[in-house]
Structures are given as structure tokens and as C-alpha cells.
Amino acid sequence: MSVNVKQIEDLEVEPMTEGDLDEVMQIEQVSFRVPWTPGMFRQDLVFPLARCLAAKFAEAGTKRLAGYILCWFVADEVHVTNIAVREDLRKQGVATRLLEEALYQARRDRMRYCTLEVRVSNEAAKGFYRKLGFEAKGIRPKYYSDNNEDAMIMWLEL
């Protein structure tokens, strides 16, 4: 059954926990050609510089995962390492809410920049980031291991 997140008034962004990993992995597997492993998520959950956030909503009397974002806060920069939304909830504001919360925390912690990489072929993602103020600042050649595709480096001054 599809859920319309616009009808979900109680969408909350909170720290991701180990208990979220089953739902995280379900989203991760359908979102990326080379998905992260559960171990990679577990490493970030305990890494002091990482911020792992989960967007959740109430469904059938329990909290369900709508999406997640992982970032590293290093020196004066926040680097987005992973962001994904449940397939049936995409294009409904979940990713925007997650990224805005991460940026709020970055500004609160006096970060100056936010960076991320995105496949050069991923026009939807590039458009999403541009809409939030990110600009293309460079290319990482052959960044993606599955097909050696380049990554566009996107940058936002905070």
C-alpha cells in the first residue's frame, strides 16, 4: 500500500539507530547500483564525526522509516555520504526534510560548507541539489566502481 507523505503530519527526523537497519537496507538495495553493506552503516552509527538521521512516520501503530541521510562533520565542512528515500515516498519532500535537518545541524555546529558527490548521469538528483542551492564545483573521474562513471562534486556555502 502506497503512503502519501503529505498526509503524514508526524514525519519526524531523528537519529538513526541499529534498530533501523533492516528498513535502511531495504531502501538502500533498491536505491543504489552499489548499495552500502550493513557493516558500513554500523561503522557510521558509531563514528564520532558522522551524523546519521532517519525520517520516520507513524503507520499501523508503529514508526516506519521514510528515508535517511548520513553525513560527516569534518573541520568546517559537512559531507553528505548517503541519502535515500523509500521508493513509494519519493518526490514528496522526505529528502528535502532530511537534507534541511542536516544543514540545520551543520549551521548550528558552525560548518561553512556542504559537499557531496552525485553521478554525472543522475539528472534528477543534480536538479534536487541545485534546487536547494548546491552548485557544481568539479568532477571526480571514474568515481563509481560499478561502471567507472564520473561523479559531479556539488557544493553549498552555509
Please give a structural write-up.
The chain has 158 residues and is α+β, with helices and mostly antiparallel strands. The chain has two domains: 1-111, Aminopeptidase (3-Layer(aba) Sandwich); 112-158, Alpha-Beta Plaits (2-Layer Sandwich), CATH 3.30.70. Helices cover 28% and strands 35% of the residues. It contains four helices and seven strands; from the N terminus they run βααβββαβαββ. A seven-stranded mixed sheet has the order 1-2-3-4-5-7-6, sandwiched between helices. Strand 2 and strand 3 form a beta hairpin. The radius of gyration is 15 Å and the shape is globular.
- Total DSSP helices: 4
Radius of gyration, in angstroms, nearest whole number: 15 Å
CATH C-level label of the largest domain = Alpha Beta
Quick one: CATH superfamily of the largest domain?
Gcn5-related N-acetyltransferase (GNAT)
Identify the notable features of this structure and list them briefly.
single chain, Aminopeptidase, 2 domains, 4 helices, 28% helix, globular
Task: Give the gist of this structure.
By secondary structure, this protein is of the alpha+beta class.
How do the strands and helices of this protein lay out in sequence?
Layout lengths: L11 E4 L5 H11 L6 H9 L3 E10 L2 E13 L2 E9 L8 H15 L4 E7 L3 H9 L3 E6 L10 E7 L1
